[in-house]
Amino acid sequence: KYKGCPWRVRDYQYGDGIIGLHEEIDHFYRYVLPTPCEHAIRNEVVKRIEAVVHSIWPQAVVEIFGSFRTGLFLPTSDIDLVVLGLWEKLPLRTLEFELVSRNIAEACTVRVLDKASVPIIKLTDRETQVKVDISFNMQSGVQSAELIKQFKRDYPVLGKLVLVLKQFLLLRDLNEVFTGGISSYSLILMCISFLQLHPRGICHDKT
């Protein structure tokens, strides 16, 4: 419509070279930030899955981690959840069966990766088509998310750098570890390392 990518601001003339790149990244960042409605939809998905978990294991705790907790998620990003409880053997198949039988997810969209270094259930929510990854007893994910939130406060430009690189990798199918890509967490740590190794006098929104 405006002769460019969807984040382009109407009648806006980008500057030359690196200035124009900075301006476009800024526009892209504002474009992909979640609306209140998108945020509410994701919270509803979490509540539905949490209700299923509590109906089977009332003492279990469901925590959000990953990009949804840190706020560094694209519209296409999945929700990372961890279920904390006491089990001798991780109940991956039990939860898979309940999620399908209660119409949270279609059977064809559910995958149990029980041989992965961190076993997870991958599914697509039937109502919203939002993708969800569920792991068990991995408390480090929650701690990592809190660490990233602290780095976001220390480096205000971190969010813009991460989201534009996440989109870059997504378009090239390099955003999933199990298909040969790089994890979102690794990408964020790389960006933090870059900002630590290339300190600026001040870190703000200017070019």
UniProtKB/TrEMBL annotation:
Top-level lineage group: Eukaryota
Full protein name: polynucleotide adenylyltransferase
GO CC, alphabetical: nucleolus; TRAMP complex
Cofactor: Mn(2+)
Keywords: Magnesium, Metal-binding, Transferase
Taxonomic source organism: Drosophila americana (Fruit fly)
EC number: 2.7.7.19
Enzyme superclass (EC): transferase
Protein family (similarity comment): Belongs to the DNA polymerase type-B-like family.
Domain Poly(A) RNA polymerase mitochondrial-like central palm positions: 21-152
UniProt cross-references to InterPro entries, sorted A to Z: MTPAP-like_central (IPR054708), NT_sf (IPR043519), Trf4-like (IPR045862)
GO MF annotation: an example: poly(A) RNA polymerase activity
Gene Ontology terms: biological process: polyadenylation-dependent ncRNA catabolic process; RNA 3'-end processing
Pfam families: MTPAP-like_central
Encoding gene (name): Trf4-1
